[in-house]
């Protein structure tokens, strides 16, 4: 490991000297904003981006020896779709703090590495900065910090904070007379925190039409199934009763994610709650739907196997693109 200085030109707030993790097998590509005009092509581009983000994210966790890869892989399709095709924001807007930018709050902050890797793939931070994840003095902490990375909108990590913060952001937008949107990504285990239900009540009561919450319904939390710990069902009925428009989708299907995000705001004027059915560890065979992968660290061989499986997906996307 070598020490290096990374700083503002990396999309970070200030300079810091820290150690670097091993380089990935190849650098993460930085993607252009995806044009939704040709929907079929857009879905393929987003699938490619999500697969590249997973390739890079698993190498970071392997090199750092820590992370939450299972719950990161379940939401990377949503993160890639939001940052590359949906959110009305850009690296320049984030850095300038443009008040009219859309906001995204990653409430399940333990999936920080997925957020950082997506931010790098979308040009908000430099891909080289990913090599500082969890290193001494690095700004890429185990949980996102808004005073360290321009594009991070809220400090999260303690579960149950993101939705209340997002409700506040959506109220602020309304008071400003702004149409900017606020998105928040939550874990399903996280919904066991009571603060979410106060926020759901307020979002429904105030008809915060530009607020979109997505719950990563991977059915697993830390060490156990959500249903065995403190069951959420009937989740859709409960959230509807709190005054929200509820949409259920396959959250690892980019086309369905695009429809759900672009279908908001709902004509009813209610806030939107997307129940995104996903698999923890998706799509890697040994990780998928396996609770051990909440925070297990892949061995060198397991990283290699994941890369092989992800490269097969990239090859199949390429074959579809050539059709
Ligand atoms: C208030 C709080 N309690 C406990 C934790 C420790 N913790 C981190 S992740 C996690 C499980 C979260 O499960 P879920 O929301 O379903 O996330 P996912 O499975 O999608 O990663 C727990 C208990 C925490 N971060 N915050």
From TrEMBL:
InterPro entries: Transketolase_N
The keyword Nucleotide-binding is assigned to this record: no
Reported cofactor(s): thiamine diphosphate
All copies of domain Transketolase N-terminal, residue ranges: 48-305
Record's keyword terms, sorted: Thiamine pyrophosphate
Keyword Disulfide bond: no
Family: Belongs to the transketolase family.
The protein's name: Transketolase
Organism this protein belongs to: Tessaracoccus palaemonis
Species lineage: Bacteria, Bacillati, Actinomycetota, Actinomycetes, Propionibacteriales
């Amino acid at each position: 490991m070598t020490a290096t200085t990374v700083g503002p030109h990396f999309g970070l707030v200030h300079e810091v000297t820290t150690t670097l993790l091993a380089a990935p097998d190849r650098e993460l590509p930085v993607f252009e904003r995806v044009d939704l005009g040709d929907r079929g092509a857009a879905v393929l581009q987003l699938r490619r981006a999500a697969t590249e983000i997973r390739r890079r994210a698993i190498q970071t966790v392997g090199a750092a020896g820590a992370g939450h890869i299972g719950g990161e892989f379940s939401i990377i399709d949503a993160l890639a779709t939001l940052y590359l095709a949906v959110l009305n924001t850009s690296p320049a807007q984030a850095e300038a703090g443009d008040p009219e930018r859309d906001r995204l709050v990653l409430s399940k902050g333990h999936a920080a590495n997925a957020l950082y890797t997506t931010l790098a793939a979308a040009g908000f931070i430099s891909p080289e900065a990913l090599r500082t994840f969890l290193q001494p003095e690095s700004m890429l902490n185990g949980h996102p910090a808004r005073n360290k990375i321009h594009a991070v909108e809220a400090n999260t990590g303690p579960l149950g904070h993101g939705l209340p913060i997002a409700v506040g952001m959506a109220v602020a937008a309304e008071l400003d007379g702004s149409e900017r949107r606020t998105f928040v990504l939550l874990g399903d285990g996280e919904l066991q925190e009571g603060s979410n239900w106060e926020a759901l009540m307020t979002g429904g009561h105030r008809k915060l039409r530009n607020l979109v919450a997505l719950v990563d319904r991977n059915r697993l939390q830390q060490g156990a199934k959500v249903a065995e710990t403190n069951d959420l069902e009937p989740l859709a009925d409960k959230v509807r009763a709190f005054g929200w428009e509820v949409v259920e989708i396959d959250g690892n299907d980019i086309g369905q994610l695009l429809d759900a995000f672009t279908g908001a705001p709902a004509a009813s004027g209610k806030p939107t709650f997307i129940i995104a059915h996903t698999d923890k560890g998706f799509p890697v065979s040994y990780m998928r739907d396996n609770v051990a992968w909440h925070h297990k660290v892949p061995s060198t061989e397991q990283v290699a196997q994941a890369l092989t499986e992800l490269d097969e997906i990239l090859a199949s996307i390429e074959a579809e693109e050539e059709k």
